[in-house]
Each structure stands twice: as structure tokens, then as C-alpha cells.
Amino acid sequence: MNASVIALDRLLDERRVWKGQPLGPAVGTQPSEHAALDAALPSGGWPEAALSEILLPMPGRGELQLLWPTLARLSRAGERLVLVAPPFLPYAPAWQAAGLDLQSLEVIRANEEDALWAAEQCLRSGSCGAVLCWPRQASDRALRRLQVAAETGQTLGFAYRPASAAHNPSPAALRLLLEGPARVRVLKCRGGLAPARAIAL
Amino acid sequence: MRWACILLPQLALDHALRQRDDPQAPLALLSGPANRRVLQTINGAARDLGLRPGMALTAAQLLSRDFATADYDLAAVERCQQFLAAWAYRFSSQVSLHYPRALLLEVHSSLALLGPWPRLEARLRAELDSLGYRHRIVLAPNPAAARALANAHDGLAVAEHELPRAIERLPVNRAGLPGEMATALTRMGLRQLRQVLQLPRAGLARRFPPVLLEQLDLLLGHRPLGLDFYLPPDEFATRIELNFEVESHQALLFPLRRALGDLAAYLAGRDSGVQRFSLALEHRSGAPTELKVGLLAAERDAGMLFELTRARLEQLQLPAPVLALVLTARDLPTFVPECRELFDPRPQQNQSWDQLRERLRARLGDEALHGLNAHADPRPEQAWRPHPGMAPPLSDRPRPGWLLAEPQPLREPLAHILTGPERIESGWWDGGDLRRDYYRVETRNGQRAWVFRGAGTDEPFQLHGWFA
Fold first, then answer.
1. Interface confidence (ipTM) of the complex
2. What is the value of pTM for the model shown?
3. What is the percent of chain B with per-residue pLDDT over 90, rounded to a whole number?
4. Are the beta carbons of B403 and A59 closer than 8 angstroms?
5. Is A109 on the interface with B (CB under 8 A)?
């Protein structure tokens, strides 16, 4: 008999055991609304009350289309969405066409240092549904602060970072690398192993 | 009718102590002409140094040098009384400053809301303590009796039927009689009011001025006392004079906290909030530096007002040392408390969006936050507005999620054109005329871009947005 006791839950979570009958995808409380991505993530969607990192090599690779369905769902539920120091102007007609209620959207203009502070405040306050930020040179410490703030305020936090940060460790609960217009690779997901293959959205 | 008298035995001293960081430090208030300054009042710590009221300043300085001094400021005492009347107005609609250094409140009608009396009394005491005022509180059936009993008691509550007994036991020199009359009665061997009341009225009326019988009738409630009631002012203004020249923001925070605490107490009394107030920092010469604080919604929480003002104060450059600060609030709209749901989906929500927005605005500037709205204009630059709202979309053509503030030449190598051209030709009415052909293109890196060039030309593409 094997001496080490392995918890069944852990084995299942690691998805190394085939359970015979395929269960339906786990229904998360914050689905990303992309079926393939939801199926690949252990929580069935975005990790709740945590920071998610989206790494992209350059703008215009579908980074907004990844989030728009989630943001649209939150805005229809009356949640407030905050963009902290976006790199470009959010173009209102397109955001509206994506199904967002623009009244729930707030844009904060700030420099790099103040933007981190503002993002942390928004995450911590718990009065926002989702907070998006674009930290360019965020230290590990700053990201950890954001992660803790997201936990405290029970808010979805999204940090867009350059793809070069993929090699550095990060305290974020979920890290996605945008490889192409509709291809996402999961680099890290809390609560399970990251799928090896890239996911087509 | 039940009247509470709040006696403030050392109002001038409390007012001076309130403006100091350490109320336990020895302090003496001075009065008299400049060549013969006399200690008017002193606090406990100064008494421990051997100082006594009435001592000349020079004599006091021989005993010790470790005490601070301030002027005995009658105008400040008057302002204090007005402020405290405003504070008391929260608890009763009939507040009078008939007697100096004492507040009279008719509390009988307030007890249904705030009572019973022991609870209301505890609340009055707790708030006065936190404001920093020493006090004695007595409850009696009429205002004159409440005032006289406060001379001898603290925490006494006298019902209607107990009043004669309580008045009879009052010492003559504490009964609110004029000084020489009290002395005359004492010299006649009359030490308690009971002895005075036992004398025949006709004899008293012959021997003493009518004030004596009037006061006795007032105390026993046989004659009503005409009171003029306090009416709250329509605006709030307070001035705090600093004891030394302050050059740093840090040292301004303590008096600022006091001033805003007073403002919050005043607002709670009027059941209003403040939306705009100004803080003027006075210098030795030149115009005062003015700091205007504007809020998006009416607020009255002292802690929040302090945080916001502090954030704005820290950004201010002080041109010269500050001698005094003046807080003025004229715009006092009705305060509507924010409603919170009982079953809030986020139990840890500790800060509402309004509070958060004020915090962000205070640090980042008033213009840093804006909403987003679409605008019915075909020109991309004009198709959005930084105000929240809901406008119908103009067309269902694909539009990029990101727009560049200024178009710039497309540097990325082009792979192919996805759609286009789409001609946008508009704006003749306001001078912002443009004629452009827009294309959706894909670069070699796989980026989707929104580019344009002048209508019908072969100019190089200008990048105007990203389909992100």
C-alpha cells in the first residue's frame, strides 16, 4: 500500500485523472464568456477577487475583445468599470457596440506612479466591478499590492502588461499571454495546472 | 418642560487648549495691560507648577518658565458660545445663551427621540468631551433653577415635585443673586435659601431690591423667564489663529482637523452637507492663500472632509509662513445619506464610489476622472464625449476599441487590407472639415489597425486606432 496519502480533490484539480464520464464545464461566477477559455480555467472563468494579468506583445492583438464580453456583462448588472490610465483613448462607439453600458464606465487619467495608486484604491474600495490598469514598469511589490487590494475589495482586477514580463514571476492569480488575434496561452492559473496548448477563442 | 443647563466652567481655557497639540501641557491665559500682565486662568498642570490665578506674569515667571501663555480672548469665548449653541441645536430646538458661559436646552420635547434623559445626558457629555469642553450638566423644571443648581451640582436631574427641596438646600452665594446681595444675606446669617424663603416676603421686599424676590420666584418657577432663543446662522465660518508661524503642511493638519470637526458638528445640527468650502491661509503680509475645495456631492463626515482637504493642501505651495487659517462654508445643500443595501453582495465594501471618487479627484486633480459617451458625429475625433451618458450609435460599421489621440504615420509593415475604403467627409459646419478614406488593415505582426489617408490620394497611411 502506498504510504503517502494523496487527496482526491487535488488529483482531480490537477486534471491528471480521467473521470470516465465527461462533466459539463464548471460554471464559474465570473465567466469570461469565451467557452474555450472558460473550459480551460479551473474556476470556470476569471479568478474571483483576484488580479489577472494579460500579457501582450503589442497593441491591436484582440486584448479588448478578450475582456469586452465580461465587461459588458458586468455593466449590464450595474457594476462600475474603471479604466486606470489606458494607453489610448477608449473609442466610445466601439465600446458601445461591444454591448457595454457606457454610463458604468469611468476613465482615470494619471501618470505611471499615480495610476498604480489609483488602481489600488479602486480595487480596495470594493465599489467597482472591474478595474483595468496598464502598469508599464510595475515591480513585483506593486503587483502584489494590486493582488492584495483585489482580494480585499473582492473586485476583478486586470493588468495589461508587455509580453516581455512573461518570464518574470508574478503574484497574479491568472496570467494569459495573447499570442495572436484570437489565440491565448495560459501561463499560470491558480488552482490547477496551466493547459499546455494555446487556446483558440 | 424640562430644562438642561450645560455650564462651561472654563470656556476660555478650553478654547485655548483645543488649539494645542498637548492639552496636558501647562498653560496660562493672560489679561491686563501690557505693562502688568496678570494670569487670568490656568490649567491643572500650571497649577501644579505653583501658579495661581491673579498672579502677575513676572511673579509667575520667577516660579517657573515651563508654561505656555496665551491671551484671554473675549471674542473667542463669544465665538465658542455661538459654536456650542449650534452644536446644542441638534438636541433641542430651544437653545438659549441667556446666561454667559452656559447653554440652556429645553429637552422635554427631545426625549421622545433621543431619550430617556440618562442616555441623552451621556451623549451630551461624550460629545462635549470629544470636542474638548469641560462641563457640568443639570436638569431642572425651569431654566433659572437649572442654571442655579449647576453652580452647586453636576449630573443632577430634578423632577417637578423635588424642585422646592433642591432649591431650599442651595447655598445663598450660589443662587445666582447679585454679589453684594449674597454677601448681605450671608452677613445676616442666612446661608441657605431655605432660611431666606422662611422670611416674610413683605419684609424682604422692603429691605432688598426687587431682584431678590424676582430671582426666588424664577427659581421656584412662580414666574416665567423670558428667553431669547438661538437661531443658527446660514453659513459656517471659523478662524483658528496659530501660535507661531507655520511653514509646513504637517503643522497645519492639527488645526485643520479641529476646524473640519467643528464644521461637521455644525452641519449635523442643520442636517445639511457641504459641497464647497474654502480654506484661507493668512500670512503676515500679502493676500491670504486660498484653497477651494469642491465636492461632487454634499458630504458631512469629518474624517472624509479632512482626508480630502489634506490631499489638496499637500499639493499647495505655501508662499509665506501661515499665521491663521479661516474655514468658510456658504454653500450648504441638504445632506442625503447614501443608501446601502442590507444584503450587499460585497460584504467588505468599505468605501462607496462617491467617497472613492472624491479621494481620486483630491489627489489626481478635478479633471482626472471622466466618464465616456458616444456622440452622433461621423468624425472619429468628435464621436465621443468625456461625460457619462447614453447616446445612440451612429453607424454599425466596425470601429476600433482604441483611438489614438493624434493620428501618426503607420510604422508597422502592412500585410493586407481587410476592408475599405470608407470615406468620412464631414465637419463643414464647424471648421473641423475633414475628407478621409479609412481602411481596416492587418500588419505583418497580426495587429488590426484603423488607418486613413486623404480622400482619393496615394499618401502614406496614417494610423488612427487599433482594433484591439
1. 0.83
2. 0.59
3. 19
4. no
5. yes
